């Protein structure tokens, strides 16, 4: 890295140049990252790359970050490369002077098309000297490919990919093919990239000399300010385009909400209609007594916990409505009936914009709540109004933005008043979450039972005035979920990532018969196995899972997986499954919450049972290592309480 692209004088405080960043520098960094095992090393390598880019050619930073996460636009825009293996094999064959049959053969043998391309290109004599690739060109071409449609699209996409691959050398070839395949296999999930970016901004704000003179402790404080500040603004404004530009233009201090510059440009990095806000989350709790203890002295409310799908509804006069899922995906075209209904539940003369938080629930003709499974039968996108057969009702429970300003900092009491003053109920279509503001145990118990009879999962209990702000992405200890299952002694369900699969035996020959599942640890950005699962699947389900999961197979265990188990097939992290277990135990094989409860061992699930695929969760939204550890601790507490009772 230093030889190819030595850190510029700019890192010492000189002004940035108009250089363009060579893609070779990025590909070399990716190769180094692929070779090191530790998350810390990966972060360091990436920080160094970003810092050099900021110091030397800041105009290339956005492209570099997008290339590192292998995305072409903010996630909610749904821009995807979606390149099939067949076209890629063709592209590789043409660029590496081989027949398609030969490429296919080598690919089948090694399982790694990127490696095949890199090796073949190495041995290829070239007549024309390739034009060195720049990061900008790589990013722009990838984006063009992702957005291409219409006539001749396959040929045009192929040509664009070939143009890059022809000019690529060494590791560039490898990482371009991985990027086309959407299998970067470096273990660089978005959270790590954001941490590195936050660090790089922090380092750049100090300059290399000051960094060299600082104590490690003081430096770490500054680095953390960068990483935490960036994560906070990104939860509110999940667009790299906006965030990166804001920091480059206004400086590092804009990440500190108390700084003058942040106050001066308050609206630049705060929530707005059109950009999904990462929703606030809740913690499980196993009884009314726990809630009363937790909320001692704080007024709270109990709301029905509806069994549907989270819907964040955005509106701006002139732009219309948008709906985002829990996972910040665009669901606007999934709910044309909701979009049509919305104008009739508020007065558009007084209301110019809003963001509300709600649950969308399937209802029958008389407005009775239907189970979540009914909602699942609605198509996923591009639904025509005339084709809607499963009707839904919106249950609004919060408001985050109103008439041009965020209201996150207001208390829940104030936000609820605002919500009630802006919107009106429309029977069977738009309602407010049913609630009681009572601290009476018996009344709460009756309300809980009524919620179940009415078809809900239980209650959501929230503080009203103290600690009652809306904090995006936070799993708040002042939002507690009380589900019927917890009351019956069962643990909460877990949402786990499919890490590997085992070939079926006997009746299950020919399909996968079992799977290795894991939780996600954001600290180390790794997936930690928690169980093997083979129960809860129908035969049809196993067949369709086998078909889907085969497309996710990778040749070896990704280095960001942690397990002692060896499935027959490793899977790249993608699907999230909801699972119920009998209980949790300390394990010699599995790594869930490693080090959090036992210093040298992880936690495993006993007798896990598959419930459903969580379409609304991505792998990094899976149950976290911390949550697994919390569940284990809660279970131990419950057991010792039971022991004392007996
Ligand atoms: P989590 O979102 O906590 O990771 P999860 O997606 O499995 O877990 P649940 O355990 O079912 O969700 O609980 C939280 C979800 O409950 C919210 O994301 C929301 O969709 C839903 N919900 C239903 N009613 C309410 C309500 N009144 N207030 C807040 N959320 C509610």
UniProtKB/TrEMBL annotation:
CDD domains: Adenylation_DNA_ligase_I_Euk, OBF_DNA_ligase_I. It catalyses: ATP + (deoxyribonucleotide)n-3'-hydroxyl + 5'-phospho-(deoxyribonucleotide)m = (deoxyribonucleotide)n+m + AMP + diphosphate. One of its GO terms (molecular function) is ATP binding. GO terms for cellular component: mitochondrion; nucleus. It is an enzyme of class 6 (ligase). Its EC number is 6.5.1.1. Belongs to the ATP-dependent DNA ligase family. This is DNA ligase. It comes from Bodo saltans.
């Amino acid at each position: 890295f230093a030889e190819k692209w030595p850190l510029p004088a700019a890192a010492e405080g000189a002004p940035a140049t108009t250089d363009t960043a060579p893609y070779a520098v990025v590909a070399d960094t990716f190769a180094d990252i692929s070779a090191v095992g530790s998350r810390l090393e990966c972060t360091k390598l990436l920080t160094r790359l970003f810092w050099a880019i900021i110091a030397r050619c800041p105009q290339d930073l956005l492209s570099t970050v997008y290339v590192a996460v292998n995305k072409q636009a903010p996630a909610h825009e749904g821009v995807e490369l979606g390149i099939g293996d067949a076209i890629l094999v063709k592209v590789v064959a043409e660029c590496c002077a081989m027949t398609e049959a030969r490429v296919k053969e080598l690919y089948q043998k090694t399982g790694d098309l990127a490696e095949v391309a890199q090796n073949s290109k190495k041995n290829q004599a070239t007549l024309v000297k390739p034009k060195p690739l720049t990061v900008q060109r790589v990013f722009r071409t990838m984006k063009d490919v992702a957005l291409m449609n219409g006539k001749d699209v396959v040929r045009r996409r192929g040509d664009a990919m070939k143009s890059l691959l022809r000019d690529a050398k060494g590791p560039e070839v490898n990482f371009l093919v991985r990027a086309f395949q959407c299998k970067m296999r470096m273990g660089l999930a978005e959270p790590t990239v954001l941490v590195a970016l936050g660090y790089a901004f922090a380092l750049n704000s100090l300059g290399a000399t000051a960094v060299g003179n600082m104590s490690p402790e003081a430096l770490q404080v500054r680095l953390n300010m960068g990483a935490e500040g960036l994560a906070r603004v990104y939860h509110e404004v999940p667009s790299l385009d906006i965030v990166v530009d804001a920091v480059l233009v206004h400086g590092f201090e804009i990440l500190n909400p108390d700084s003058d510059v942040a106050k001066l440009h308050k609206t630049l990095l705060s929530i707005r209609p059109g950009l999904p806000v990462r929703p606030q989350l809740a913690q499980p709790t196993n009884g009314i007594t726990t809630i009363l203890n937790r909320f001692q002295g704080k007024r709270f409310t109990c709301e029905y916990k509806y069994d549907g799908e989270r819907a964040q509804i955005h509106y701006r006069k002139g732009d219309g409505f948008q709906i985002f899922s829990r996972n910040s995906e665009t669901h606007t075209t999934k709910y044309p009936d909701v979009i049509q209904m919305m104008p009739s539940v508020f007065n558009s003369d007084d209301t110019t914009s809003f963001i509300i938080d709600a649950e969308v629930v399937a209802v029958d003709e008389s407005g009775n709540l239907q189970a979540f499974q009914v909602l699942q039968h609605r198509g996923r996108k591009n639904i025509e109004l005339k084709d809607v057969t499963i009707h839904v009702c919106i249950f609004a429970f919060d408001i985050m933005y109103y008439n041009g300003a965020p209201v996150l900092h207001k208390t829940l009491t104030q936000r609820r008043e605002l919500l009630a003053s802006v919107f009106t109920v429309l029977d069977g279509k738009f309602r407010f979450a049913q609630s009681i503001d009572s601290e009476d145990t018996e009344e709460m118990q009756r309300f809980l039972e009524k919620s179940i009879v009415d078809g809900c999962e239980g209650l959501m209990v929230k503080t009203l005035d103290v600690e009652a702000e809306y904090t995006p992405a936070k799993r708040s200890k002042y939002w507690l979920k009380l589900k019927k299952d917890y009351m019956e002694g069962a643990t909460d369900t877990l949402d786990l990532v499919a890490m590997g699969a085992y070939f079926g035996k006997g009746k299950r020959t020919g399909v996968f018969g079992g799977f290795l599942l894991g939780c996600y640890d954001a600290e180390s950005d790794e997936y930690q196995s928690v169980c093997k699962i083979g129960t809860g699947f129908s035969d049809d389900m196993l067949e369709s899972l086998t078909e889907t999961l085969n497309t996710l197979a990778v040749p070896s265990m990704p280095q960001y997986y942690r397990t002692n188990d060896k499935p027959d097939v490793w899977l790249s992290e993608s699907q999230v499954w909801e699972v119920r277990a009998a209980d949790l135990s300390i394990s010699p094989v599995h790594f869930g919450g490693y080090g959090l409860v036992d210093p040298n061992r992880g936690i495993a699930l006993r007798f896990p049972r598959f419930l459903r695929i969580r379409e609304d969760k991505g792998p990094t939204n899976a149950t976290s290592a911390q949550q697994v550890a919390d569940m284990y601790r809660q279970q131990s507490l419950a057991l010792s309480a039971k022991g004392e009772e007996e």
